[in-house]
Amino acid sequence: MQKGNAAYIKKMNQKLILKCVMNEQSTSRATISKKLALSKPTVSTLVDQLLEENWIFETGNGEASTSGGRKPVNLMFNPQKGYIIGIDIGGTNVALGITDLNGKVYAYRDFPTQVNLEHHLFEEIKQSVESMKWEIGIDDSQILGVGAGVPGITNVKEGTVKEAPALKWKDFPIRERLKEIFDLPIYIDNDVNINALGEHWRGVGRDKKNLIYIAIGTGIGSGIMINGKLYRGSNYSAGEIGYLVTDRVHAKDYHPVYAGYGFLESVASGSSIGNQLSERLGRNVSAKEAFDLYQQQDQAAMEVVNFAIENLALGIANYVSLFDPELIILGGGVSGSYSIFRKQMVDIMKRYTPKECEVVPTTFEKEAGVIGAVALFLKEFDTLIDI
Q1: E strand residue ranges, the chain
Q2: Which phi-psi region, left, alpha or beta, contains residue 62 (left: φ > 0; alpha: ψ -120 to 50)?
Q3: Is the dihedral of CA 176, 152, 150, 184 positive or negative?
Q4: CA distances from 180 to 126, 148, 161, 186, 300 (A)
Q5: What element of type H or E holds 65?
Q6: What's phi and psi for 230, nearest 5 deg?
Q7: Which among 190, 283, 287, 286 has a CA at the least distance from the CA of 230?
Q8: pTM for this entry
Q9: Cα–chain-centroid distance for residue 99?
Q10: Average pLDDT over residues 49-56
Q11: pLDDT band, residue 365 (cuts 50/70/90)
């Protein structure tokens, strides 16, 4: 066997053993050997190396059992082997956190985006991370790297933001700018994509291989997981569900070149719902207030919300027909009102889809983007952890 092949096989077996320990939470060498069909000497050698490198640790004392044999020494994963910085740069706020390898958030910070955008954005990011490192008592040697999400089309390979209207960025070298403040491996992706990764890793989609995360806020975007992998498309712009045309009649008067966003988000996003109702009522109305008025059976609110939900349901029905996902997860501000419009959406979807698909709201709160960014790093960085 060639040396390169032997090294590769060794690393793959280490990954399998580590994953087995992580999945079982507490297990023995004998159990690993049986489960993975690896010889006991091979497992023992690789486990010793994982122990030496601090990926795992031993528990139990090997005392005699009632049957007369000795209890096996159990192995457990060490999530504090390293830490990861997660950054979610949103149009309104920047959220930052430091997690362990299980995604547990040990420190969290956020600050407003727009007031810092022109001059102090990266300085604020650096100061926030330094503050978090001091809070939990770690230094750079314990940090594996950085994952970051941004609200725009992102060239993952180049580490550039092709276009992010909310940040007024075009061909912006985001990874290069972050490299100026972090001497660490850095991975960048679209913010909705990282949310899909986070849900798949630690959220309601953790046992699913095929899922779609749809963020409904200022705009509408989606992240698509197929066979456990993120689908980005040939131009890194897959998942732009906001551009779907869901009403042929209304689309005739729609001019996306001038509007700057897609048809579906022009009628069904949170900002659109608020803007449409504001025009009708002659005062500023938020999407949340629109749903409150909808529940009170306000006529104008009912017309606006019903039209928005009908179009949203049609868009999601198209996704179900195309991708046949196991689960659709709704995030963004409008998802907070899902209980109000769930039945209406599900009824419409049933009419147009060959098979039903469960639609659920996200269970993550303010730390969602941080966990997603960490999931991105673990997915892309060449480490023994395989998520």
Answers
A1: 56-59, 74-77, 83-89, 93-99, 105-112, 143-150, 153-155, 160-164, 169-172, 186-190, 211-216, 220-226, 229-231, 327-331, 358-361
A2: left
A3: negative
A4: 10, 15, 17, 11, 51
A5: none
A6: -70, 130
A7: 190
A8: 0.91
A9: 14
A10: 96
A11: confident
